[in-house]
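Ticket #4471: structure output looks truncated?

Reporter: J.K.
Steps to reproduce: submitted the chain below (334 residues) through the standard prediction queue, then opened the result file.
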Amino acid sequence: MDRISLEDQVSMTVDDREIVDTDSEIDSPCLGSGKIGVFTRNGLTRLEEWNGDYGIIKKSFLKGMGQFMEDTNVVAIHRNSNTSLTGRARMESFRIFAEAVAEKEGGDGNIKYGWFGGSRDEICEIVNHGFSNCRESPGFGVHLSPANFAIDSLLSSPMDEDGLRHMLLCRVILGKMEEVRAGSKQFQPSSKEFDSGVDNLSSPRRYIVWSAYMNSHILPSYIVSFRAPSLRGFGRIQTPVLKPNSPYLKFPTLLSMLSKFLPRSKMVLITKYHNDYRENKLSRSQLIQRLRQQAGDELLMDVIKSYRNKQIKSRTRTLASMDQSNTGRFAAVA
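Returned output as attached by the reporter:
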């Protein structure tokens, strides 16, 4: 582990999260596995508890969980060793950019550790392919929370079917930072003088790495898998979770609706992809990508919106019926 002390640091057109599998309405894990062993199968190394890095990361993570520290249980920590050809290339690229930024800033590249919260599937994709296909935070770019504020990435870490949440600990080249106000539409440095953004220069709770730099200035290093208490009522968060506020559309329902518009040849392919996914031959993101290729974003958006509208109208009628019933009952009591 590169000894940068953790303790010293005290959008897609179609939202694939609106499409879920038959049996679940939560994010599917990478490669469809229900176990955290998926990380080792993707080239990461699980750290033993006696490992020195394990103790440092666990202590920093729990300290950064604030009010949830006592009720949070770290289940596993995996290290991204970057042993593959692509991994070594990413590490070398990070080193070169770190040196370039350091030279630009007079010798200090301002390299920190930061937390990125995501689903297990999303984190697997980032480790394997970089941040290019991940969701970007509101305001553009990738948002991470400082090493001592893991709690700020908690709501971006959805629980999987095993009751676990996952956070990615990354090394981040920040260079010279500029303050970016909440709600800003800024999508790049305001001038060549700056390398990254923060919400507050004196006490940052959010690091902003612009899209152009997200795969050169961020190096995924560790994954922490943990159990945390219910987040109901927990509202203090810098980076909101991007989840649909509409009814989920299950895959069989989607297939039924698409069959009204697509030729049989395409439906056969889509059904095959779905079966491959259920047999753990495809990851969820691969399934969604192939679905988009066959159906097209425009049709998918129309189908999802149609489903949404029907569900909303149905709920509205139900609520109206309940209101009429309650009004009559209260009138009788009066």
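Triage note (M.O.): checked the attachment and the full token line is present. The first helix runs from residue 38 to 41.
Status: closed, working as intended.
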